[in-house]
Automatic annotation (TrEMBL):
Natural source organism: Prolemur simus
ARM repeats: from-to residues: 534-576, 880-922, 962-995
Disordered: annotated span: 380-407, 421-445
Compositional bias of kind Basic and acidic residues: 380-400
UniProt-recorded name of the protein: Outer dynein arm docking complex subunit 2
InterPro entries, per the entry: ARM-like, ARM-type_fold, Armadillo
PROSITE patterns referenced in this protein's UniProt entry, alphabetically: ARM_REPEAT
GO biological process, one term: outer dynein arm assembly
GO cellular component: axoneme; ciliary base
Entry-linked Pfam families: Arm (PF00514)
Length: 1043
């Protein structure tokens, strides 16, 4: 921990040598990780938590004495723990404002008591104890020293005669692990930061100045530097501030807010303290959040700026001229730097685009791109669609981490995407900008290969057959994976020639052409050009060729090209799917027996290439149906039995894509494919393991499939793969398969035997969201059983689950609320959830805009209210909470309504809360829902009505709001749970005479009589009680009539 605080944390410079932690996102992230470590310490390491520090951790606290409750002796100015060391000294002692803590147990409890100020307390503790390890274990373990390596520390401990040697070793190892974790976490945090440099900042300011001035249509009134002097490095900040990464300071006068004094630094843009009144100096201290650039900052601060920015359509060509003039010198520098980088990073923008200078060491988004409107946008619509599609396809193939969704809104609004949304089932995210159509500039410094390839293309155009073959062979000697070579072929018209060669009768020319196109079609622009030039239909026809080499090459090229929707459409419309499926059965036409011929090298290669092309094509729904109708599933099932890994990957990949459709899942069961998927989970190939796990994830929606996975021994390899966390794509697939398999109780029992639940708890931190969604989903299913809830609690799983309630990912929130709700069934776990403020977080999710999140949160609140110690007071403590719940009864979503009714049933158990929700109009809202045919809603609505009848004149109000007659109809349902809840509601309502009359008129007595003989005791009693009330009313009426 000391090493991370020394190397990663950002400290202020202080003349005394005792600086303080700066208020930066990195420091905040480090402090949060330390807090999480300390808070979970008492659950994960209860023995070590009792260890008494060699020296206490001391600092000045802002925590009030009133925060200390049971377990502490509190006086007017001091507080001390009842827990003491062997000498009788308290392990926590507070003498306002100084506090001393001597164990992790007390430190953890102190942070729990600190609540909202725990971050401030952690910062104060770290600042006052620069080397906490030395105070915890002793001065000989001072991590500030040069020899404080892990081995040296352990060596010193082993030579020590301390009786607590084992505890010290464990704590030393845990602190070292925390240190490494903090260093790695810091590196990740720093790598994600956007770093600015003076060139683009200056460009942004000058462009803003150009569009500022008086008048309503300008973006700003004015924007000026605070200093006119510019240093040679482009900065205007004083040298002692440049050390901190600050570049310049600007004073901005927006139209609608007061003047802003802004700091532009390498970390981003933020508001400073402004100019002081005395000497006009700047108060450099940051006063708010850091934004990625000036435009984003001003958009957030000024509504007028945002509005006018959206109105301005800056002429594209004028911007190009101005930016080119500004970036002339910087382009030369960038050119020198690019020579040191790999050739693949050299990319030239289209002639009609602005050549923005990108510093290769400091990646950032250019804000001025948001100001431009592309004049030829309509002409490029299809190009934009295709580029986005193929990027998504490329990501699916390479399985790289996805770009955050929702960043392409500007393009999506203008481009017609209905067909794409319907036909594409790929889950990969799209990138937000179009891949520029790269054209080599005439005056660009091009390598010699570019010109040599262009000469070879000329030979292809004008040479005879022999010259053509030689030119093709010579062209293959170049590095065709290099972008310069690929674009050289295209720029001189080589693609047209290569496609024309596919129409000849010369097999050698076709083979040479396909080999080249197979290599260069990895380039997204080349793919589109091939489709535009009509290359795909020709390749589809080649699939009928008797030459296996031609078939293989054509299929592989199709696999590369069919990465975007339009290409997949072309393949299907020209009969490509049927031909590709036929390649899977390549042994059929062989004279040798089918089984032996299948495993011959050439036959295997043909089938592999066919599967590869089908994998690319299977990302659209229409193609999936075409593969199924062409008889692809039995052939894929047969190929799945092969031992060739290079064959298995595309086969399983295709099945994985297709398994999202119910018809495929049924066929997969029928063809006994699950057994082979389970078998290949034990393969050493990570990619094959990933696709097999993903296929199981897709198929395990079905109960029979989950049973098959267990019967074929698939749960154990899945559990073991959870321990391999390096490959995040595979981990996401494996955790997804575990989640879906956990829906069956028998599988959960097996996972408990294989210690998978403990492993899942360990995956609740430091994992990407796609992994967390599945992990939490699996824990939610596992925690339906008491034994598993105990395991989760003992492993410290409650805290990370509660921490995840503050996220924004919809799928993650749905799963984590279910998991927290399952844990809340256990009173001990509920106590932890309550202490961590989990109930308040769940309640706040009722405001979430997504119905699924609302419903899941409401379901989770039910066990929380039921098992909380003082549930009534807890519910009332949430300001506006009861009104929020009642208002959710106006929702149109049946799941939300059912879950809210269930929550109201539990809330209404407290008389005061029942009175409050009655005042908020719960009775008429519940009554409006009575006319429903949804049995789940009927059950919980009846239970809620039953509970609400127990206050004031609510029984009468339900009758007046016409809720009684629809309830009688519920007795005709086939669900016993609905019968029980309805009978209980009718029993409560029958305490009112008018309600009894309505029940009798609607035939309730006959239906209730049949339920008196039910084996369900609660249903018996409620039905009998209701009939009794109705009968008493009838007798009283009859008696009154005769008397």
């Amino acid at each position: 921990m000391g090493e991370a605080l020394t190397k990663s944390a950002q400290w202020t410079a202080a003349s005394s040598g005792t600086g303080t932690l700066e208020i930066t996102p990195l420091n905040e992230a480090i402090l949060k990780e330390i807090i999480m470590f300390v808070e979970s310490f008492i659950y994960k390491h209860p023995k070590e938590a009792k260890y008494v520090f060699v020296e206490p951790l001391e600092w000045n606290t802002s925590l009030d004495l009133s925060a200390f409750g049971s377990g502490y002796v509190v006086s007017e100015t001091t507080a001390k723990s009842e827990e003491v060391d062997k000498n009788g000294q308290p392990l926590l002692f507070l003498s306002v404002p100084q506090i001393k803590i001597r164990s992790f147990w007390q430190l953890s409890h102190f942070l729990f008591m600190a609540k909202d100020v725990k971050l401030t307390e952690a910062q104060a503790c770290i600042e006052a104890n620069r080397d906490p390890v030395a105070k915890i274990l002793g001065s000989e373990y001072n991590t500030m020293k040069e020899d404080a390596t892990a081995l040296n520390i352990l060596d010193k401990i082993t030579k020590d005669d301390d009786p607590e040697i084992e505890t010290k070793i464990k704590i030393a190892m845990l602190l070292k692990q925390l240190d490494l974790h903090l260093l790695n976490h810091s590196l990740k945090h720093i790598s994600l930061e956007i770093r600015l440099n003076p060139v683009p900042v200056k460009k942004d300011i000058e462009l803003l100045q150009r569009f500022s001035g008086k008048g309503e249509q300008t973006v700003l009134e004015s924007i000026e530097y605070t200093s006119d002097y510019e240093f040679s490095n482009g900065c205007r900040a004083p040298p002692w501030r440049q050390i901190r990464g600050e570049m310049c300071y600007v004073v901005v006068k927006p139209h609608d807010v007061e003047t802003l004094c802004i700091t532009c630094s390498a970390e981003g843009v933020f508001l400073n303290g402004g100019k002081t009144d005395d000497e006009g100096d700047i108060d450099y201290e940051r006063k708010g959040e850091i934004y990625k650039d000036l435009v984003t900052f001003l958009t957030e601060k000024s509504a007028k700026f945002s509005e006018n920015m959206s109105k301005h359509a800056i002429d594209f060509k004028e911007q190009q001229k101005e930016t080119d003039q500004l970036g002339e010198a910087a382009k030369e520098e960038a050119g020198k730097l690019q020579k040191a980088i790999s050739g693949s990073d050299k990319k030239t923008l289209e002639k009609n685009q602005i050549n923005f200078v990108k510093n290769p060491m400091a990646k950032r988004l250019e804000p001025s791109l948001n100001w431009k409107v592309t004049v030829d946008y309509k002409d490029r619509k299809s190009s934009v669609k295709d580029s986005q599609e193929e990027k998504r396809g490329a990501k699916t193939e390479s399985r790289r981490s996805s770009v955050p969704a929702g960043r392409a809104q500007l393009l999506r609004k203008s481009v017609e995407r209905i067909e794409e949304i319907v036909s594409d089932s790929s889950s990969e995210s799209e990138e937000d900008e179009e891949t520029p159509d790269h054209r080599q500039e005439a005056n660009a410094d091009l390598p010699s290969e570019y010109w040599q390839i262009q000469k070879l293309v000329k030979y292809l155009k004008g040479g005879n057959q022999t010259a053509t073959v030689i030119a093709l062979c010579s062209m293959r000697d170049f590095n065709l994976a290099q972008e310069t070579c690929q674009l050289a072929i295209r720029d001189v018209g080589g693609l047209e020639v290569l496609i024309n060669l596919l129409d000849t009768d010369e097999v050698k020319c076709k083979i040479g052409s396909l080999k080249i196109m197979k290599e260069i079609s990895h380039n997204p622009q080349i793919r589109r050009n091939i489709v535009d030039l009509g290359g795909l239909p020709i390749m589809v026809n080649i699939l009928d060729s008797p030459h296996k080499s031609l078939k293989c090459l054509a299929a592989e090229t199709i696999a590369n090209v069919a990465k975007f929707r339009r290409a997949r459409q072309v393949v299907r419309k020209h009969g490509g799917i049927t031909r590709l499926v036929a390649l899977l059965d390549c042994a059929q036409n062989s004279a040798e027996p089918a089984q032996s011929s299948l495993y011959e090298a050439r036959d295997v290669e043909v089938a592999r290439c066919g599967a590869l092309a089908l994998w690319s094509c299977s990302k659209s729904y229409a193609n999936k149906e075409a593969i199924r109708k062409a008889g692809g599933i039995p052939l894929l099932a047969r190929l799945l039995k092969t031992s060739h890994e290079n064959m298995l990957i595309p086969v399983v990949g295709t099945l994985q894509e297709c398994a999202s459709e119910e018809s495929y899942r049924a066929a997969i069961k029928a063809e006994r494919i699950i057994e082979n998927l389970v078998k290949n989970l034990s393969s050493e190939n990570e990619q094959l393991q990933e696709h097999c796990a993903m296929a199981i994830y897709q198929c395990a929606e079905d109960e029979e499939t989950r049973d098959l996975v267990r019967l074929h021994g698939g749960l154990k390899p899945l559990a073991s793969l959870l321990n391999n966390t390096d490959n995040k794509e595979r981990l996401a697939a494996v955790t997804g398969a575990v989640w879906k398999c956990s829906i069956s109780k028998e599988n959960v029992t097996k996972f408990r035997e294989y210690k998978a639940i403990e492993t899942l708890v360990g995956l609740l931190t430091d994992q990407p969201e796609e992994v967390l969604v599945n992990v939490v989903g699996a824990l939610g299913e596992c925690c339906q059983e008491y034994k598993n809830r105990v395991i989760v609690r003992r492993c410290g799983g409650i805290q990370p689950l509660v921490n995840l309630l503050v996220g924004i990912n919809q799928a993650l929130l749905v799963n984590v609320t279910k998991a927290v709700g399952a844990c809340a069934v256990d009173p001990e776990s509920m106590a932890i959830i309550d202490r961590l403020d989990g109930v308040r977080l769940l309640w706040s999710l009722l405001k979430n805009p997504h119905p699924d999140v609302k419903a899941s949160a409401a379901w989770a609140l039910c066990p929380c209210i039921e098992n909380a110690k003082d549930a009534g007071e807890m519910v009332r403590s949430f300001v506006g909470g009861l009104e929020l719940v009642v208002n959710l009864l106006k929702s149109d979503n049946k799941e939300v309504l059912a879950s809210v009714c269930a929550a109201i049933t539990n809330i209404a158990k407290d008389k005061e809360n029942l009175a409050v929700i009655t005042d908020h109009g719960v009775v008429p809202l519940l009554s409006k829902l009575a006319n429903t045919n949804n049995d789940q809603l009927r059950r919980h609505l009846a239970e809620a009505i039953s509970r609400c009848c127990m206050w004031g004149r609510n029984r009468v109000a339900f009758g007046e709001n016409k809720a009684v007659a629809p309830l009688v109809r519920y007795l005709k349902s086939n669900d016993t749970n609905v019968h029980r809840a309805t009978a209980q509601a009718l029993y409560q309502l029958s305490e009112d005479a008018d309600n009894c009359i309505i029940m009798h008129e609607n035939g309730a007595v006959k239906l209730l009589l049949a339920m008196v003989g039910s084996p369900d005791q609660e249903l018996q009693e409620a039905a009998a009680g209701c009939i009794s009330n109705i009968r008493r009313l009838a007798l009283a009426t009859e008696k009154a009539r005769y008397t």
